Each structure stands twice: as C-alpha cells, then as structure tokens.
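name: query_chain
kind: protein
chains: 1
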Amino acid sequence: MKYKHYAPDAQVYIVDPDDNWQEVADWIGAHQQPVGVMAFNDVINSIDWPKKHRRHFARGRRKIRCHDLFAELRDFDNHKQYKIVFAQGLKPTGIAEAYMNRLNKSAGQMHFKQL
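structure:
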C-alpha cells in the first residue's frame, strides 16, 4: 500500500483471529516500550497483561462499528509514548468485513506475526 488511511502515529499491527494473545502479552512484557492493545472483552479479560500497555476497545462484539475503530486508533495520538498498537483482527464476514478493510488500511497490512 502506498500510504496508510486512518492510521494513528503509532504503528498498528493486526492480531489475526488464529493468533495467540498470550504471545502478544509475552511480546509486550519482553520489550521496554509501552504498547497499546485494542481488543474485545473476551481477549482483554483472558490475559494477565503487563503493566506497560494501554487497553482500548473493550466492548462486546455486537458493538462492532467502524467509527469506534477510528476513534480508538486516533486516541493513541493523544498518548505519544505508544509507538506500537496491537489491534484485534476478525474473520471478515458481515460487518466485520468493513471493519477489517479499515483496520488493514490503518495497519498498512502489517500483522503481529511479521514482528
């Protein structure tokens, strides 16, 4: 992609539906910088997160709205210490297809497994 749409200043990485969120938490714990996490309640509540991260978007899946995605991503611009954001990817069916289209643009097609 030539440029990223709707992207915050931080680099966004998509955590795909089949990825292990404990590996994400371990990655955060092994690095010095603060990291942002955008995920739904089932993920947020299932992990003992390192203290140096910021969580967003902890809502039930029924509230998937693209507007929320952009607002949450842009909120990281108010917190410049976060240079990396891990965002929960979804299987692209129904409304999640539009969500994933926008998330892919925001991430510049970057995924957690590419780190």
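note: The chain has a mean pLDDT of 85.
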